[in-house]
Design a protein that fits this description.
2 copies of one chain form a homodimer. By secondary structure, chain A is an alpha+beta fold. Helix content of chain A is 48%, strand content 23%. Chain A has a 3-stranded mixed sheet. The radius of gyration of chain A is 20 Å and the shape is extended. Strand 3 of chain A pairs antiparallel with strand 2 of chain B, so a sheet runs across the interface. The first copy, chain A, binds a DNA duplex through helix 4.
Amino acid sequence: MTARLRAIGQLRAAGKRLTPERELLLEILASNPHLDAMEIHRIARKEEPRISLATVYRTLSLFEELGVVRACGLGEAHAHYEVRHDDHLHLVCSECGRIIDLPSPVPLRKLAESEGFRIERIRLELIGLCDACAKKRDAKSGKDA
Amino acid sequence: MTARLRAIGQLRAAGKRLTPERELLLEILASNPHLDAMEIHRIARKEEPRISLATVYRTLSLFEELGVVRACGLGEAHAHYEVRHDDHLHLVCSECGRIIDLPSPVPLRKLAESEGFRIERIRLELIGLCDACAKKRDAKSGKDA
DNA sequence: ATGGCTGCAAACACTTTGCATCGGC
DNA sequence: GCCGATGCAAAGTGTTTGCAGCCAT
């Protein structure tokens, strides 16, 4: 419940309007841990049959921008392929798209298996800036400021 | 180089044909760590201008099936949304789709930052079977066998 | 009342599929 | 020669965008 009110505050703070559609989507998101856009639309239609899928996407993207929700399960929107090898970490640079492989030194399997979870595949991506891009960005923001 | 030969063996073992297109894609994959289908197609065209994007997709999907390559950056092909909270691990059940959240107890930030990588966001998914589905599958395979 | 928000539909990007032809086995 | 693999183009998905009207502020 609190999450919903906080989100409304964030909307107003950003000078955005609070529409019935946004309230509805907020409510749906707050009470469902993991949904994709289509599912959200389907649920929303029950309450508000005229709501469009475009609005769902626009609203989700707004919410993500405001930090209300987070998108997961999607990296750069399409698949990359690599020759198969063991579990590893990907360091994905959100600036230049560079992908750095690391062998996984963390005890993930043990961790998950303590939950009774049987791991088939590990996918870990740390999204951020590689050394070079971080420095570039620092230099630029120094200029801009 | 060995990877290429092993892949050819896997093709033959699976009763699949070794075509120039497949050889070419294998070569490209072996010498490039991370490519998407379009990039692979673009590179392949330099060598074999008549190769089609459809063949690239079909071949990648075959290779993935054979375990020659692995697709990454794609989960269930589209994004899921959840109300934002701190970094966490997702345990994704590949059977029932259930997603279990865990607070992240692993020192990922430290690890990546030692590479000079500045993390903006952590995404970790351990794909496998949750306790219930693992047991269900065990029971079934016991029956099948 | 005015500008942001909406629905609708068309556009988009990536991937898959149907069909006739081609070529590895 | 047979059947699988290919190229081409069209269809399919999930997502984004242009536009005219609408409604929260």
